[in-house]
Amino acid sequence: MTVITTNDTANVIVLQMSPVVSMSEDSFFDFCQLNSHLRIERTSTGKLIIMSPAGSETGNRNFKLIQQLANWTDQDGTGIGFDSSAGFILPNGATRSPDGSWIKLTRWNALSEAQKAKFAPICPDFVVEIRSPSDSLKALQDKMQEYIENGASLGWLIDRQNRQVYIYRPNSDVECLDNPATVSGDSVLPEFNLDLEKIW
């Protein structure tokens, strides 16, 4: 029997599926398409994380973030960007959908067209998450660490409530910036500086 548990946040449901129900990558993709009104992720152990859509204010801040990332991506030309509706299958088997992400064109172009059409089996080079009022900070921190452990070169966790940005890099301690005006893309996103005044 499927066991339903609620997470430590009000708008998240965790479904323990295994070993009763096992979905292939294709079946999980189809399941998400059938329930497109929900935001659904899958952990490396097969649990389904079901989240309600973001609130309007959080959606606006995500839009501002994606706007800046998209403008830089178009100007830079070395990679491809994604919004929160894109899912990626990480090397550990989890399927995640960061609020924003970017992948080098050389890595993206190495995928087949069939892989690109569904949840691509690749961890983005850069990921960013914006904490909404209902999000657990610890759960987002764990997710950011998962991205880094699965191949991301840079990750930002933007905590609007506390006006902090956590910066994740491989083989480095997490850096926390207090109330920064901007945050730099380092060598991963050269010359990209996110204007946080539009996000706060």
Provide a descriptive summary of the structure in words.
This protein is an alpha+beta fold and 200 residues long. It has two domains: 3-51; 56-198, Alpha-Beta Complex (tt1808, chain A). It is built from five helices and 14 strands. The protein has helices at 25-34, 56-76, 105-109, 113-117, 137-149; strands at residues 3-6, 12-16, 39-42, 48-51, 79-82, 88-89, 95-96, 100-104, 126-131, 154-159, 164-168, 175-178, 182-184, 193-195. The strands form four sheets. A six-stranded mixed beta sheet has the order 5-8-9-10-11-12, sandwiched between helices. A four-stranded antiparallel beta sheet has the order 1-2-4-3, with no helix packed on it. The longest helix is centred in the N-terminal third of the chain and has 21 residues, at 56-76. The chain is globular, with a radius of gyration of 16 Å. The relative contact order is 0.13.
